[in-house]
Amino acid sequence: MSGHDGEGRAVRDFWERLGLPGLIDVHTHFMPERVLAKVWDYFDSAGPLTGMKWPITYRHEEEQRLALLREFGVRAFTSMIYPHKAGMAQWLNGWAVDFARRTPDCLHTATFFPEPGAEAYVRDAVDAGARIFKSHVQVGGYDPNDPLLVPVWGLLAEAGIPVVVHCGSGPAPGKHTGPEPIGRLLARHPRLRLVVAHMGMPEYVDFLELAERYGEVRLDTTMAFTDFSEGLTPFPRAELPRLADLGERILLGTDFPNIPYPYVHQLHAVERLGLGDDWLRAVCHGNAARLFGLQGHDS
């Protein structure tokens, strides 16, 4: 792999030392090429939601990105797709069905937007085998409690399908980001399997509290604890005991390929929290294996 020689070995050394069969990454991005190109252009231009230099480490063709994840030993991953406006979600879901069919190690991912017809196309995605959904409150600029989404959340809560939701106010606050809208959503759907992306940064403590209150709320590690994020919004060290106690509900996520550092750095960032090998094994594999019922992955 050009430019990444030796990195595969470093990633495999990490999980082999823990005695794992590999990694499960719940927050990776695969999407239609023209959409991904626009995302990369946004990062290159230091768009208003980033406002900083953000080099893309894994700017490769789709097949090379897939080959890299497999070389790393990532046994299951996602195709986090999300619309930034109405009229996109159903088209993205159609692409994701095809991607999942030709990529058996990808957990079939789907998305939605508050618009007429959302309930119908979400039900279609569930019927087509979607295992996980993505909601991007920041980029989509919508209130998760929008009336058009009420039946969608109800359907997903009933089906027990996890939803990775970018709802924290990092890297820049949005109109509907932060813990308050999500708190209202969970009060209405307490069994909703929400996975709070990026550990909810920068509102780490508020989202940890929501996870303590609601037994199906999880958080993913995406970009959290890395040098990049610690320099901007450091995780409060006083909260490490809570992170340890919630160990069964923390899931490995990375944001591959759109990260400004090597993949292995996310793993080392989680490891250096010092919460122990059992905690690491659960976060990097066991928790997601249980959540998604991945046969042969139980650990």
UniProtKB/TrEMBL annotation:
- Describe the location of the Amidohydrolase-related domain by residue ranges: 24-294
Quote the CDD domains the UniProt record gives.
metallo-dependent_hydrolases
**Superkingdom, according to UniProt?**
Bacteria
Among InterPro entries, the record links this protein to: ACMSD (IPR032465), Amidohydro-rel (IPR006680), Metal_Hydrolase (IPR032466)
Coiled coil where? none
Q: Any idea which UniProt keywords this protein has?
A: Lyase
User: Looking at the keywords, is Lyase present?
Assistant: yes
Q: Which PANTHER family match?
A: 2-AMINO-3-CARBOXYLMUCONATE-6-SEMIALDEHYDE DECARBOXYLASE, ISO-OROTATE DECARBOXYLASE (EUROFUNG)
For this entry, the protein name equals Amidohydrolase family protein
* Organism encoding this protein: Streptomyces rectiviolaceus
Lineage at the top is:
Bacteria, Bacillati, Actinomycetota, Actinomycetes, Kitasatosporales
